[in-house]
Amino acid sequence: MMDLWITPDHLFDGRDLHSGKSVRVHDGRVVDLANARTDATRVPGLLTPGFVDLQVNGGGGVQLNSTPTAEGMQIIADAHRTFGTVAVLPTVITDKPDVIDRAADAAIAAKGRQGIVGLHIEGPHIAMERRGTHSPDLVRPLDARTMTTVTRLREAGVSVMITLAPEAATLEQIDQLAKLGAVVSLGHTDATAEMMVAAFKAGASCATHLFNAMSPMVGRAPGAVGAVINSTCYSGIICDGHHVADEMVGLAIRARPVSDRMFLVSDAMATVGGPEHFNLYGQDITLKEGRLINAEGSLAGAHVTQVEGVKRLVDHAGTSLEQALRMATSIPSECIGQPEIGRLEGRTIADMILLDDDLFLTGNLAAVLGNLKRAAAAG
Questions:
Q1: Which residues have a catalytic role annotated?
Q2: Distance between CA atoms of 62 and 378, rounded to whole angstroms?
Q3: Residue 15, Cβ neighbours under 10 Å: how many?
Q4: Residue 359 pLDDT > 80, yes or no?
Q5: What's the distance, CA 181 to chain centroid?
Q6: How far apart are CA 98 and CA 67, in angstroms?
Q7: Angle between helices 171-180 and 144-155 (to 10 degrees)
Q8: 280 bridge partner residues
Q9: How far is residue 146's CA from residue 152's CA, in Å, rounded to a whole number?
Q10: pLDDT in tens, 93-110
Q11: Least enclosed by CB within 10 Å: which of 4, 40, 87, 185?
């Protein structure tokens, strides 16, 4: 049975950044935090809970829409784990009802598996004008079938985020989804600010990839973007240098009326930990100079990891390290009602990661401690 104290160079507990602290590991879990102890094992780097990502379309060569199975979800989660993301919401985008139902079946079957914390249904109930790479033939208003699917997921205890456009659903439907316990996230929308505010009042509590696939903010019309920034809702944002200008990412974070409502998402596709191309809606999506491009020349998801997003937030968007880490751990976990996955205490050492001074991943705590133990035995 493992029971030891360790002292990293720096430590992030899910909320605050510390120096001069030790953590106690008992039976493979972090169970205590104290001032640095003289009997602790030194571990180089920044120790933090592993990252949380609420918008993960694929990874490891698997796209959820193409492989809507529990096994497919596990491959995706495992691929992102190698890059420091230990909890994901596998994301099924606009597709046929049968595909979405199969993804729901998979999420129920995968409940409790390592790294899988629910299901994100992104579309098909979105605005045609802001569909992005989503298939125009499959876009449709919110219907009874999707309501039944979300109900089934919630009755099984599965966390659900559903991205929809206010113009594709009624306020009564948004209210019903929220009362089921689903996180209603507004996105892929051409809505006015007034429509967005009405949807927030009806129960929507989040927004999907701020700036992307949203009516823009201009001088006389706040649009969807302005409505989200002015609200107290949660909002995901992609920080890869392609989807949103770094300056706009930083501006949005600073402009929110309350703190800790912006969180980092990857919007990652199958290429993360996989080959440089994949098939979506019968089209070949190819990675070119860091951008995933479809046949229309449009962005089709992202090729980025959360650890890269955290580094970019700090290096290019003017975000403090503490804020960037919260955006990848505690804030998204609180958004989906699972705050424990963004905290340090209680997590397994396999879910704790170490970053070096340049914010590159050096490994998870379990692997690092294993290496130290082997080195001590050999020495």
A1: 267
A2: 40
A3: 15
A4: yes
A5: 18
A6: 12
A7: 20
A8: 283
A9: 10
A10: 999 999 999 999 999 999
A11: 4
Phi/psi at 190 (5° precision):
-110, 20
CA-CA distance, 330 to 327, in Å (whole number)? 7
- Residues 68/103, Cβ–Cβ less than 8 Å: yes
- Mapping DSSP onto H, E and C, the string for the chain reads CCEEEEEEEEEECCCCEEECEEEEEECCEEEEEEECCCCCEEEEEEEEECEEEEEECEECCEECCCCCCHHHHHHHHHHHHCCCEEEEEEEEECCCHHHHHHHHHHHHHCCCCCCECCEEEECCCCCHHHCCCCCHHHCCCCCHHHHHHHHHHHHCCCCEEEEECHHHCCHHHHHHHHHHCCEEEECCECCCHHHHHHHHHHCCCEECCCCCCECCCECCECHHHHHHHHCCCEEEEECCCCCCCHHHHHHHHHHCCCCCCEEEECCECCCCCCCCEEEECCEEEEEECCEEECCCCCECCECCCHHHHHHHHHHCCCCCHHHHHHHCCHHHHHHCCCHHHHCCCCCEHHHEEEECCCCCEEEEHHHHHHHHHHHHHHC
pLDDT in tens, 214-265: 999 999 999 999 999 999 999 999 999 999 999 999 999 999 999 999 999 9
Determine whether 335 is exposed, middle or buried from the number of CB atoms within 10 Å of its CB (0-12, 13-18, 19+).
buried
Q: At what angle do helices 97-109 and 70-81 cross, to 10 degrees?
A: 70
Q: What percent of the chain clears pLDDT 70, i.e. is strictly above it?
A: 99
Could you tell me if 132 and 188 are in contact, meaning their C-beta atoms sit under 8 angstroms apart? yes
Q: For residue 21, what are its two tokens?
A: 């602290």
* Letter string b/e over residues 203-219, b meaning 16 or more CB atoms within 10 A of that residue's CB: bbbbbbbbbbbbbebee
List the 277-280 sheet strands across, edge first.
Answer: 277-280, 283-288, 291-293
Instruction: Kindly state the average pLDDT of the residues 17-23.
Output: 95
- Return the pLDDT at 379: 64
Mean pLDDT of 107-123: 97
What global pTM score does this model have?
0.96
In the chain, the amino acid numbered 87 is: A
Query: Does residue 129 register a pLDDT over 70?
Result: yes
